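F.,

This is the one I mentioned.
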């Protein structure tokens, strides 16, 4: 769940950067439409993660679980963590490889990949003499926006974690966890365990593994293909028998001629 907070903040930062560099000239209608589509997509995604209600026994453990989680995530923790994360990690990451020309003149972004920093800044200055001030002003509001997002998320995340503690720990375990958190060492652990997940050491360790992970992802595609190499080849529509073609059409609620027309339009064999 800690990683989810970092990912959410990263997503906001990336979205903000993308919109500021590629949609500065977008109309208000287009922006509203994109936001509406995003909200619809998020609403649809939410239905994919329906959860079972707590049992009576779990409900009974919920107050204690909530006390424990409140020790781990005091009010304002997520905002504080995100501020630190932005200053140390995400801010520099956003700046890396961002061309001044792409920022100031998104219409030519596809042509600006090979520019030197000096060339990029000169082009940006031609189109927008105030590009640097504009970029700095936009970047300056990003930490505050991320803090607002984390503040908005915090109550829901605290509730979710409380329910998870009530579900996954027995009454005896919760008693022992709460007793530990009431000690000096436990209180220190409760305060620090959550924020430590945003330490640059954790991010650096993840980045060190990135080349190996990318290699594994590439290898996975080859392995996926190899797994099915000894299976019968997939057939195209024209390799089916007439009866099979008719059945496919029946299942789709169309005619075979309509399928053939669709295939022709899609340049499929």
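My design for it:
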């Amino acid at each position: 769940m800690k990683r989810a907070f970092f990912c959410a903040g990263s997503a906001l930062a990336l979205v903000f950067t993308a919109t500021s560099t590629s949609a500065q000239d977008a109309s208000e209608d287009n922006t509203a439409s994109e936001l509406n589509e995003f909200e619809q997509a998020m609403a649809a995604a939410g239905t994919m993660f329906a959860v079972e209600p707590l049992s009576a026994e779990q409900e009974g453990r919920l107050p204690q679980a909530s006390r424990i989680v409140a020790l781990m995530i005091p009010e304002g923790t997520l905002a504080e963590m995100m501020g630190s994360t932005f200053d140390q990690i995400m801010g520099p990451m956003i700046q890396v490889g961002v061309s001044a020309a792409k920022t100031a003149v998104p219409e030519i972004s596809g042509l600006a990949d090979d520019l030197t920093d000096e060339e990029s800044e000169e082009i940006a200055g031609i189109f927008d003499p105030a590009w640097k001030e504009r970029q700095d002003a936009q970047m300056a509001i990003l930490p505050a926006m991320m803090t607002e997002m984390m503040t908005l998320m915090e109550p829901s995340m605290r509730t979710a974690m409380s329910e998870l503690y009530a579900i996954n720990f027995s009454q005896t375990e919760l008693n022992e966890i709460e007793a530990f958190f009431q000690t000096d060492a436990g209180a220190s652990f409760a305060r620090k365990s959550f924020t430590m997940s945003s330490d640059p050491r954790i991010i650096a360790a993840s980045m060190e593994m990135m080349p190996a992970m990318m290699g594994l992802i590439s290898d996975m595609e080859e392995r996926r293909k190899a797994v099915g190499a000894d299976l019968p080849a997939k057939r195209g529509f024209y390799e089916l028998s007439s009866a099979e073609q008719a059945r496919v059409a029946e299942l789709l609620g169309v005619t075979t001629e309509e399928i053939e027309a669709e295939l022709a339009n899609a340049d499929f064999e």
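The chain has a mean pLDDT of 77.

Talk soon.
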